[in-house]
């Protein structure tokens, strides 16, 4: 296979995105899972039946006859079908002769490795399902899982699915209050947690947090404790031992429960960068088929691949593309206890070489942090196994996009920027790597079958090149249950499928070629004078400056003033001079109206566990409002310093 690059460099005249475009190299396009240039037209003409392509990736216990059911205004994908999700992610691969293929390869914080073949996974899932059943878990129950990326987490998720119970994964770093809120709101009487885990080299206790959450929940909670720090953790009166239960039920056979396609598979709370956590419920048939199809079409994952999704499972990305999508395809999914930018052996490159990773999916935030630490020389770690790179979670600026492609993709692997949300279940806007040219800075067109538009406050489409809110005009199988029953936003209608729409909370602009550039969340928009600016527009200009690692811009109170928080490479950058360059660049390239009144240099920006910059917290700090619970952050330790620097500079 030759690695000749067919990349083209042509201007598309798009007003906001970068102007360079890159086609897939021929070695990629020749073998890609989806390479049909007419796929979007075909899907548009044949909607909703086009989605049999996703439904048919699964095994059904009762075949669906209708692709999209619209009874009484409620939309149900594959509505009359029944299926077993854990069979689809586990047993069927064993039955198909792939029992010895690795399903999950786990790499612990200190570099230890553990591999589960599909047969091992089936045995583990059955034992844990039998154990949970013995504790009273049954169809429709909600089991809260408060654990980091350890193998017990995906095993227990699949064990819940096997029993028809819903899992409710809560990010392991959350506080007792956050955990209690999520348990109470989800009506969950079961908790599987761990004694602790390792984070950046140190042991973090988890038991006390879980205990205090239980005290706050007004229910009799049945608890199970995984020993991660100790083999035999103290159980007290409140916990059963995961290890002992698993041993007791080893060898148990548990037939998976068949569920209606529209039955819930799990609940998950959204990341909450803008406010209160919100419960999202996903369906069994629609979600799982959409996870499988987008993992195939956008991430180009194949059964024989080793695939690394560097997300915490507590984030929707870890659910869809760390667990359900790759396992539905029968792939090897790598599960790292530590985030990609905090690997034990130093660089994520080491893992890519050692595990021979084919497809790598991570967040722009993690990439910026890797970039800040500097890439190892090209000959130190072999990265030639990489076939495709993906990003998710925040807009990726062209400069980081190019760095990613050059350093990890040998300057030619396709890089897909994927926009989606907890609510969408899977990728909704992205280029198909063998079909659409990539355009750094723009996520791309809607996934085939999804019709995306940019609308104004009244829900009317705006002209290409104008800013508005991203909206999806047609239902798709991965949408959450709330969207299936209501649609959302201006013009959402129950009766008429064409009136259905989902108006997201993201600002966007669409170019004449249909490519969408995301400009940041609505709630983060800078309102200055008469105009509104998406945070991403300003941040992109600043991040292109030499020496800048990360930037977040926020509005200061109601003063019409803007603050830019910037982290930089201090070895080569003079912070005072950088502040001047930031202000001049923004004024020149965007508008003097949005020139930052304050440029505050900080060591690092505060980020959620899913890598999203917490602009709301920065706005609170710079406006003197104080800030609340920081347990949703992956780096809560930086907040004190950010506050000090902000005050000192006043
Ligand atoms: C998957 C996930 C959703 C919000 C979304 C948007 C931001 C995600 C993005 C992106 C620009 C991308 N977002 N992907 N913004 N480009 N490729 O992140 O789900 O945690 O619910 O967050 O993330 O603002 O609305 P979730």
From TrEMBL:
Family in the record: Belongs to the ATP-dependent AMP-binding enzyme family.
Lineage: Archaea, Methanobacteriati, Methanobacteriota, Stenosarchaea group, Halobacteria
Keywords carried by this UniProt record: ATP-binding, Ligase, Nucleotide-binding
Entry EC no(s): 6.2.1.1
Region spans: Disordered: 1-22
Domain named Acetyl-coenzyme A synthetase N-terminal: residues: 41-89
Pfam families: ACAS_N, AMP-binding, AMP-binding_C
Every AMP-binding enzyme C-terminal domain range: 538-612
GO molecular-function term, one example from the UniProt record: ATP binding
Any one biological process term the GO annotation gives: acetyl-CoA biosynthetic process
Name of the protein in its database record: acetate--CoA ligase
Species: Haloglomus irregulare
Coiled coil regions, renumbered to chain: none
Stretches assigned to the AMP-dependent synthetase/ligase domain: 93-476
